[in-house]
Amino acid sequence: MELSESVQRGLQSLADPSAFDQSCFQVLVDVSFRSLLSSRGDPGVLDQPELKRLDQIMLKQSHTAATTFILEAVKQSADKSTISSCLEELTFSAERIEIFYSTYQKHKTELDRLLASIGRCPPRVNDVSWRLQYHMKNSQVDKVNEPVYLISLDTENEGSSEDVNFTCTMEQLQDLVGKLKDAAKSVEKASQM
Questions:
Q1: Contacts 24+ apart (CB under 8 A), 115-119
Q2: Could you tell me the pTM of the whole model?
């Protein structure tokens, strides 16, 4: 996993037994997972009595680094060897790696669901229908004599269907078709890699 320098520094502080003793380490790991899974983003998660005596700046940096590492691990579906090797490089002891990984395993399914719910998948186009209209005049000009295409896309997103309707001129339609062809070529190239 590639981690930024600030995340690496925060994790190295978390790995340091002089900065975080074993009980503080366990509490901070638990708090990091809880803060990600909390539905309301509880701002007081770092107000645990065990963490009060720590330097608050270092505590926040380590918490941020831990949550970033957790999300990155879940995003990449990291296994035990990946997590272990990454944490070993950051000077984590075997005992701390085991604590971190067991907590990760306990919450992995919930975190997978959380990441899957973030964002919106673009809708899938199921069908396209079109109709040609010819505008002969409008309210500003007596003679327009211009074809206009009425396009209707039947789309589906997460089980619900929706129609997307728009109009375009001949030039706009040609531009759209060209961009769709470029996109199809890009997808084809990406699938061949």
A1: 115/71, 115/74, 115/75
A2: 0.61
